Amino acid sequence: MKAENILDTEYTPSDDEPFMNDRQLEYFKQKLLKWKAEILEESRGTIEHMQEGARNIPDIADRASEETDRALELRTRDRERKVVSKIDAALRRIEDGSYGYCEETGEPISLKRLDARPIATYSLEAQERHERKEKVHRDD
Fold first, then answer.
1. Sign of the CA dihedral 103, 109, 113, 117?
2. What domains are there in the chain, each with its CATH number?
3. Count of C-beta atoms within a 10 Å radius of residue 122
């Protein structure tokens, strides 16, 4: 299939077509690449902002506020770095043919779930089981 930019069309994956056909795979690939580009662009903006903002602020309250803002921004960027890693893993799954299938059950992940969270690796049911198990172990 020609690598047209499916995101610019009105195409939405549908249960009426074969699961993870070429068009669906291209749709999710473009969605993931766009998401990754947006995150990387925001990161570049943060770095530039932090370089500009590295100044000596005489007022201790203003300095504390600035440092708190920076710490929050760095935590946000760290979370986004982890998302980029998950996006890269999803792109690799598209290439190897395993994208869209639950890592636990091997069953297809719903298109609705993938459209909302294209980095999902579990079906909704498997994710809920995983979270319940995690909660039980956390409460111990």
1. positive
2. 17-99 (1.20.120.910), 102-140 (no CATH)
3. 19
- Average pLDDT per consecutive 10 residues, the chain (140 residues; last block may be shorter): 56 94 96 96 74 68 80 86 96 97 96 97 94 78
SS3 for 8-22 is HCCCCCCCCCCCCCH
Q: What is the pLDDT of residue 42?
A: 85
To which residue do tokens 């069953």 refer? 107
Query: Alpha-carbon distance 90 to 124, whole Å?
Result: 17
Residue 112 DSSP one-character state: H
| Token couple for 134 | 């995690």
Q: Is residue 29 a contact partner of residue 91, using CB atoms and an 8 Å limit?
A: yes
The CA-based dihedral angle spanning residues 9, 95, 102, 78, taken in that order and rounded to the nearest 10 degrees: -80
Instruction: State how far the Cα of 43 lies from the Cα of 81, in Å rounded to an integer.
Output: 9
Could you tell me the sign of the dihedral formed by the alpha carbons of 24, 29, 32, 35, in that order? negative
Helix (H) or strand (E) holding 46: helix 22-53
